[in-house]
C-alpha cells in the first residue's frame, strides 16, 4: 500500500450535528491511528449548516473537518454526497476511507469506492490495521453464519461500519483542528430530487438507543401479543423490537426489525420472546450485555446466546414474569 495521509471519515448529519454513526466512525478512526503514528484523521460533513458540526467532529477526534454547506444538503441526494466525498478524498488523500452502513451510506459508499477504483468492505463490525498497514475489515458473511476478516490491500481502502459496532468517544472540547470549507457545484451532479420526506412518528425511546429491548418473534402467534411486550418495555423504560418473521407477517412495522437486514442494538438487557435465534437475527443483538430468552423449544438456538432462559410457552411465562417484576419494582 502506498503511504496515504491518514483516515477520512465520510460523515453524515443529524440536523446540524454529526450523526451518532459518524461519531462512532471517528472513534474507530482514532483507534486505527494508534497503528499509523504521525497520520491524521479528517472528516467530511455536508449539511444545511455545518458550523457546529465541524467543531463537534474535531472534539471527537478529527484534525480536519471538510464542510460543505448548502440548503440542498438538508436532505442530501447520494450523488451530491458522493461528489462532496470525492472532493474531500482528493484534498485529504487518505489511505483509509471510513463511512457508515446507514440508509445514505449504503448508497454513497459503494459509489465512492467505485469512483476511487477500489472495493468496499461493507457492514464491518470491526476494523484494525495489520503490520503492512493494510486495513483489516471484519464483517459477517454467508447471511451472518460466518465472520470474515479481509485485508484491504489496494492503495486506498474503503469500509463502511455497522452502527453501534464501535462506541463513540467522549468529546474533548480542548481539542483544536482545522475547518476547510468546500465549494462544489452540486447542482450539476444531482439527478434525483427528493420531493417529500415523511418522518415515521415514534413514541418513546428509539430502539437503537434503548438500554432495554423487548423483542418478539413468530412464536408470539400474532400482532396482539406485541401489546404485552410493549407493557414490559414501558415498565423497564425500554423499546420493543422484533424478528424479521414478525415484521414480514405485518405484525409490527419493519422499523422494529433487529438483525442483519434490520437494526443493530446493543442494550444492557435484550429479552427475546418467541424468537428462535437465527444467525441473521443474532447479528443485530448478540452484542447485548445480557440476553434473556423465553422459548418453548429447549433446543432453540437463542438459548446458546442467552445468559438466562425460560423454556416454556410465553403465554404462561410472560404474565408471571410481569407480575413478579411489578413486585420487584414496587
Ligand atoms: C439474508 C437474510 C437476512 C435476514 N435478516 C434477518 C434480520 O435482520 N432479522 C431477523 O430477525 N431475521 C432475519 N432473517 C430471517 C431469519 O433467518 C429467521 O427466519 C428469522 O429470524 C426467524 O424469526 P423468528 O425467530 O421470529 O421465527 P422462527 O424461526 O419461526 O422461530 C419462532 C420461535 O418461537 C418459538 N415459539 C413458538 N411458539 C412459542 C410459544 N408459544 N412460546 C414461546 N416460544 C414459542 C419456537 O420454538 C421458535 O424457536 C434473514 C434471513 C436471510 C436469509
Outline of the structure:
By secondary structure, the protein is an alpha/beta fold. Helices cover 27% and strands 25% of the residues. Bound molecules: flavin-adenine dinucleotide (FAD).
Structure description:
The protein has 330 residues and is of the alpha/beta class. It folds into 2 domains: 7-181, Rossmann fold, CATH 3.40.50; 207-328, Rossmann fold (3-Layer(aba) Sandwich). It has 9 helices and 17 strands. It has helices spanning 20-33, 51-59, 78-92, 103-115, 225-235, 244-248, 279-282, 302-305, 314-328; strands at residues 7-10, 13-14, 17-18, 41-47, 64-69, 96-100, 120-124, 126-129, 135-141, 146-152, 157-161, 178-181, 212-216, 239-242, 269-273, 290-295, 308-311. Strands 7-11-6-1-4-5-12 form a 7-stranded parallel beta sheet, with helices on both faces. Flavin-adenine dinucleotide is lined by residues 143, 217-219, 243-246, 257-262, 274-276, 278, 280-281, 284, 294-297, 300, 313-315. Flavin-adenine dinucleotide binds at residues 143, 217-219, 243-246, 257-262, 274-276, 278, 280-281, 284, 294-297, 300, 313-315.
Amino acid at each position: 500500500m502506498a503511504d496515504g495521509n491518514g483516515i477520512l471519515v465520510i460523515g453524515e448529519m443529524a440536523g446540524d450535528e454529526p450523526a451518532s454513526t459518524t461519531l462512532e466512525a471517528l472513534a474507530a478512526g482514532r483507534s486505527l491511528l494508534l497503528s499509523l503514528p504521525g497520520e491524521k484523521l479528517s472528516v467530511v460533513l455536508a449539511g444545511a449548516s455545518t458550523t457546529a458540526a465541524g467543531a463537534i467532529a474535531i472534539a471527537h477526534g478529527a484534525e480536519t473537518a471538510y464542510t460543505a454547506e448548502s440548503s440542498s444538503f438538508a436532505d442530501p441526494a447520494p450523488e451530491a454526497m458522493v461528489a462532496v466525498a470525492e472532493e474531500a478524498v482528493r484534498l485529504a488523500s487518505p489511505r483509509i476511507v471510513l463511512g457508515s452502513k446507514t440508509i445514505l451510506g449504503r448508497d454513497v459508499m459503494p459509489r465512492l469506492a467505485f469512483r476511487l477504483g477500489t472495493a468496499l468492505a461493507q457492514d464491518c463490525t470491526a476494523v484494525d490495521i495489520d503490520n503492512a498497514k493494510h486495513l483489516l475489515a471484519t464483517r459477517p458473511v454467508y447471511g451472518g453464519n460466518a465472520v470474515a476478516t479481509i485485508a484491504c490491500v489496494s492503495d486506498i481502502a474503503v469500509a463502511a461500519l455497522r452502527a453501534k459496532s464501535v462506541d463513540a468517544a467522549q468529546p474533548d472540547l480542548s481539542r483544536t483542528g482545522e475547518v476547510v470549507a468546500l465549494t462544489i457545484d452540486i447542482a450539476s451532479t444531482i439527478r434525483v430530487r427528493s420531493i417529500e420526506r415523511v418522518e415515521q412518528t415514534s413514541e418513546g425511546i428509539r430502539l437503537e438507543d434503548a438500554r432495554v429491548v423487548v423483542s418478539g418473534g413468530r412464536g408470539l402467534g400474532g400482532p396482539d401479543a406485541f401489546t404485552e411486550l410493549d407493557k414490559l418495555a414501558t415498565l423497564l423504560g425500554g423499546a420493543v423490537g422484533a424478528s424479521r418473521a414478525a415484521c414480514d407477517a405485518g405484525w409490527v412495522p419493519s422499523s422494529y426489525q433487529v438483525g442483519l437486514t434490520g437494526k443493530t442494538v446493543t442494550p444492557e438487557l435484550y429479552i427475546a420472546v418467541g424468537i428462535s435465534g437465527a444467525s441473521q437475527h443474532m447479528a443485530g443483538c448478540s452484542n447485548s450485555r445480557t440476553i434473556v430468552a423465553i422459548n418453548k423449544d429447549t433446543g432453540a438456538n437463542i438459548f446458546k446466546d442467552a445468559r438466562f432462559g425460560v423454556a416454556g410457552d410465553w403465554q404462561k411465562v410472560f404474565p408471571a414474569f410481569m407480575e413478579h417484576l411489578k413486585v420487584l419494582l414496587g
